[in-house]
Write a sequence for this structure.
């Protein structure tokens, strides 16, 4: 069963066909990678799915209803979560407060600082932090955290909304290989445990091939391949597209960086 159905999605900027006739499904509980060289149209796809950008043509169905024309906030409310490419946590607040604030918003409550806020959704916040391995940092200010840890907090914030589908556009941007592997491995475990679906982009082919259930390859706005790691690895057109981008596309089978 599909959670998300994208059909003939198209978007041009001036003369540039950023996304052209793109169709794909995201299955229930699927960990799906959307890859492609810079400028392939990945972010444009994400921004249309989350409602930030209006498509020129095509349809996007989430949980069997069209979400084209819906506002980002309404799409978020329906259960499409996302993490941000640029860290979006509030630096001066503590790690726990950031997650509590997300829970307040999820429950449609009005946010006010003060004694009442300190306790609100506290337990649930710490529980979510535990799931991303950050419970020990609950009392620390977000601005003190290492970059990789901020990303984990962002993930807890996204989970606070109990998404059915999580969109992650380059969640590991700026991370070292080891950290990339750890974060994507963590998300994959959450996908399995919570049965959510994730659509993500990732530059490291090693990480993509190690964890993705399925891989869609975009090049110049067009889907050129859609299949499992083996099929994508052996696809001549995909290899061609990656030649000359300076990015390795020959990971060892089953490699973990
Ligand atoms: P990716 O995320 O795969 O790197 P993008 O979706 O960001 O690719 O970009 C796809 C193409 O659309 C690129 O040629 C890019 O320059 C162009 N593009 C993206 N956003 C805009 C915009 N807001 N205005 C003009 N051109 C854009
Ligand atoms: Mg992008």
């Amino acid at each position: 069963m599909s959670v998300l159905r994208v059909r003939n999605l198209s978007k041009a900027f001036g003369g540039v066909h950023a996304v052209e006739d793109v169709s794909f499904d995201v299955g229930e509980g699927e960990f799906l990678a959307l890859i492609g060289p810079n400028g392939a149209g990945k972010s444009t796809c994400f921004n249309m799915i989350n409602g930030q950008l209006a498509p020129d043509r095509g349809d996007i169905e989430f949980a069997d209803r069209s979400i084209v024309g819906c506002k980002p906030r309404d799409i978020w409310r329906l259960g499409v979560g996302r993490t941000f490419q640029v860290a979006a946590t509030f630096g001066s607040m503590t790690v726990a407060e950031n997650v509590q604030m997300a829970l307040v918003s999820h429950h449609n409550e009005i946010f006010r600082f003060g004694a009442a806020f300190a306790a609100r959704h506290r337990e649930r916040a710490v529980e979510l932090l535990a799931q991303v391995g950050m419970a020990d940092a609950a009392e620390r200010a977000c601005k003190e955290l290492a970059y990789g840890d901020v990303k984990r907090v962002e993930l807890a914030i996204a989970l606070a909304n109990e998404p059915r589908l999580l969109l992650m556009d380059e969640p590991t941007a700026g991370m070292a290989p080891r950290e990339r592997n750890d974060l994507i491995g963590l998300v994959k475990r959450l996908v399995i445990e919570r049965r959510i679906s994730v659509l993500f982009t990732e530059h490291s082919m090693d990480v993509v091939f190690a964890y993705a259930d399925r891989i869609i390859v975009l090049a110049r706005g067009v889907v050129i391949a859609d299949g499992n790691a083996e099929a994508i690895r052996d696809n001549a057109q995909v290899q061609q597209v990656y030649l000359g981008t300076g990015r390795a596309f020959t990971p060892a089978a089953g490699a973990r960086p």
